[in-house]
Amino acid sequence: MSTVVHIPMLIISLLVLTCFGLTTVEVEAQAGHLPAEEEKNYTMSSNSEPSSDQQNNQDDNAPLWRYVTKEAKLGKGGGNIVFQCNFCRQIYRGSYYRVKAHLLKIKGAGVASCNKVTNENLVEMRRVMEEAEQRVKQSNLKQVPLPTSSAATSNFENSSSSASAIDPKRRKGSIGSIEKAFNMGAREIVDSEIARMFYTEGLSFHFARNPYYTRAFKSASQLPGYVPPGYNALRTTLLQKEKSNIENLLEPIKKTLNEKGVSICSDGWSDAQIRPLINIMAVSESGPMFLKAINCEGETKDKHFIADLLINTIQDIGPQKVVQVITDNAVACKAAGHIVEAKFRHIFWTPCVVHTLNLALKNICAPSTHPRYDDVMEQCCWISRVSSDASFIKNFIMNHAMRLSMFNNHCKLKLLSVADTRFASTIVMLKRFKTIKRGLEQLVISEEWEMYKEDDLVKAKEVKDKILNEDFWMDVDYILSFTTPMYEMLRLADTDKPCLHNIYEWWDSMIEKVKEAIYKKEQKSFTENSRFFDIVNGILVERWTKSHTPLHSLAHSLNPRYYSQQWLDESHDR
Questions:
Q1: N or C end of the chain: which has fewer CB within 10 A?
Q2: What is the DSSP code (8-state) at residue 414?
Q3: Helix (H, G, I), strand (E, B) or coil at 280
Q4: Backbone angles phi, psi at 115, to 5 degrees
């Protein structure tokens, strides 16, 4: 939650794999990291439908395993197992060779042919085998030469000099002293191998900035004959080992909970498979700690469900250690917070400050059309209109390839496609528009914009008129001027550092800065009345009233800063 923390991604990545009952293979499949063939479900008649366990263990080198049920493995080694045919339900012993012979009715394999397999089943299974063989062939990496000469590769493989690869005209055995000292040919080949690893797997170049990337290669270079861990080791033993290590590192934080108290933070999100998840985190003076993530698929996330999750977490940690629970401002979360407060009288429910600010910005920039908000709509409708114009310009350019190409020629920065779920999305978009204003103006007055006639010319002219309209840019500047204090406070509160003791003053100072910006634009003195400021101030005060808790006032009053002579001397009103 933004009131307190950003959780370290390493801890979440390691612990979330097992926190709600997912195996590593399932996580990889849901994240899109497994090959397509491992996720594909094959269907046949009802009497031959493979089980989920078999689908998870499909192997292109032995594709017919899916048509039998593995009962038990015979011995510690080898491939002999006890299996049951999904067609005839008979139990046999043997390796994949016998499975294949039984299903395809191959004689002389020491196993009876299946009398329940029909001709249609035979055709289907042979097709599956052919497709598996094709995938195996396609999966074999094609040996593409590295971007070094064959002489360098040959010399490197033979552990001899590869310096001749640098200059093909140099005679064999002619090695420069510098090249010989630094083994430059071998280094060139290793660099090419590492680069190809990035290219073939589509790894981000930012991965090379990971400190563990360089450290791993330096460590490996000191171990002759070292082979890196494989697929299974990375997702099983090494993952569990790292998870245990992280848990041990968190022990010092857990020990401080008795001394300083802890805040329980909860937030909902959806993963790549659109599964509703709820994170539970604990935050103390020593730092944030990820506790668990709950898969809420099939559950109704009402106040009782959320309250039960929070109460169970409080019971696990110990009620005497918990100071507050932090959630967003959703109705169900608020009601759940009140249930927690009723059960534990000493625990407070605190709404997320950043979410509160975001809701305030939304009320100002996109006011509701409900009749009770008519006065807000009357004063703030122009903000919504400016935001809509900016979205129209952005969408027209982004949705037309040629217009986008022209834009890229005139602007170094890109147009942002900010999701509505992001905090202060309207402000972020307008800030980018102000930054690229000059480039947009050069774009629409350019000859190529006028000459291109393939797109909707009416919309193209409308985009040009809006960009060249100085009133539009004046409105953008005005919106940014009085919303900047809100955006800055949002950024200040969206941190992993303790800031509860500053919220009261930040909110009060933010309203004063908003007032200054509005009165400066309207050229009024503070003694005069401003209808627009009254509306904006009303929204901010209403949001503060809904989110304010005694903890804010208590933390503010206990802040030593407000008892220093320096702070008292900063203003004559103190």
A1: C
A2: P
A3: strand
A4: -85, 0
